[in-house]
């Protein structure tokens, strides 16, 4: 075989290997992009859930809601003025 033929075969093999490398790199880039898009979608879903949970917490923590739950579930009533005792600083000194 002549040197030119060997060189042509070697160059063709290198071009083929380079083409395979490009295909593999593009495939991996697509896979990473797909994973990135999935992560963004998951982030958006989690942000939406977080917002809904904050709204729910704000709803459950309102004074009127707590007062209603105390009255209806626990049977609590608001004490009258005669049942309220105020504790001032003087009572701590005893």
TrEMBL record:
Membrane topology: Single-pass type II membrane protein
Pfam families: FtsL
Keyword Repeat: no
GO biological process: FtsZ-dependent cytokinesis
UniProt keyword list: Cell cycle, Cell division, Cell inner membrane, Cell membrane, Membrane, Transmembrane, Transmembrane helix
GO cellular component, one term: cell division site
Subcellular location per the Swiss-Prot or TrEMBL entry: Cell inner membrane; Cell membrane
Family the entry assigns: Belongs to the FtsL family.
Subunit text: Part of a complex composed of FtsB, FtsL and FtsQ.
Function: Essential cell division protein. May link together the upstream cell division proteins, which are predominantly cytoplasmic, with the downstream cell division proteins, which are predominantly periplasmic.
NCBIfam families per UniProt: ftsL_broad
Protein name listed in UniProt: Cell division protein FtsL
Native species: Thioalkalivibrio paradoxus ARh 1
Gene label: ftsL
